Automatic annotation (TrEMBL):
Family, per entry: Belongs to the peptidase M24B family.
Protein name (Swiss-Prot/TrEMBL): Probable Xaa-Pro aminopeptidase P
Matching PANTHER family: AMINOPEPTIDASE P1, XAA-PRO AMINOPEPTIDASE 1
Peptidase M24 domain: residues covered: 39-137
Keywords annotated in UniProt: Aminopeptidase, Hydrolase, Metal-binding, Protease
Length: 156
């Protein structure tokens, strides 16, 4: 039976979150769990975003980082990259990143992109959650500036 307001941690530290996998060796410390939750909050915030057509990945990157920034933490890699038909690991030109070249390509409907924030402590542990998303047109009540709005659909 699952009870409300109860946190369940698998003893073997393995759990399956929809299309994102988490594993560790040994017992997790409470601080590790808190960092995991911060990464998960960023992962969810980006995955649930609605944004004006023409928005670039540089503008969306902050959504995944804010929960970590609130604690003075961050990660050194981009948050997401394009994927496509040639099975390259990273396929552009679009990406979701703090790096300046993420400003160059506006995100458009039918693009695929990953949502993969993380947090790492050298020599201690690392966390990364990853889903594949497709960008779709969003049905919004209003359409400020007649731009149209986009949203992500989780495909993994």
């Amino acid at each position: 039976m699952v009870e409300s307001f109860t946190v369940y941690i698998y003893v073997d530290c393995y759990s399956q979150v929809p299309s994102s996998q988490s594993s560790c060796y040994g017992l997790m410390k409470l601080l590790d769990v808190l960092h995991f939750v911060q990464v998960l909050k960023g992962h969810i915030a980006l995955g649930n975003a609605r944004f004006p057509n023409g928005t670039n990945g540089h503008a969306l990157d902050i959504l995944a980082r804010v929960p970590l920034w609130k604690s003075g933490l961050d990660y050194r890699h981009g948050t997401g990259h394009g994927i496509g038909s040639y099975l390259n690991v990273h396929e552009g030109p679009h990406l979701i990143s703090f790096r300046p070249h993420a400003r160059n390509v506006p995100l458009q409907a039918s693009m695929t992109v990953t949502d993969e924030p993380g947090y790492y402590e050298d020599g201690n542990f690392g966390i990364r959650l990853e889903n594949v998303l497709i960008i779709n047109e969003a049905d919004t009540k209003f359409n400020f500036g007649d731009k149209g709005y986009l949203q992500f659909e989780h495909i993994t």
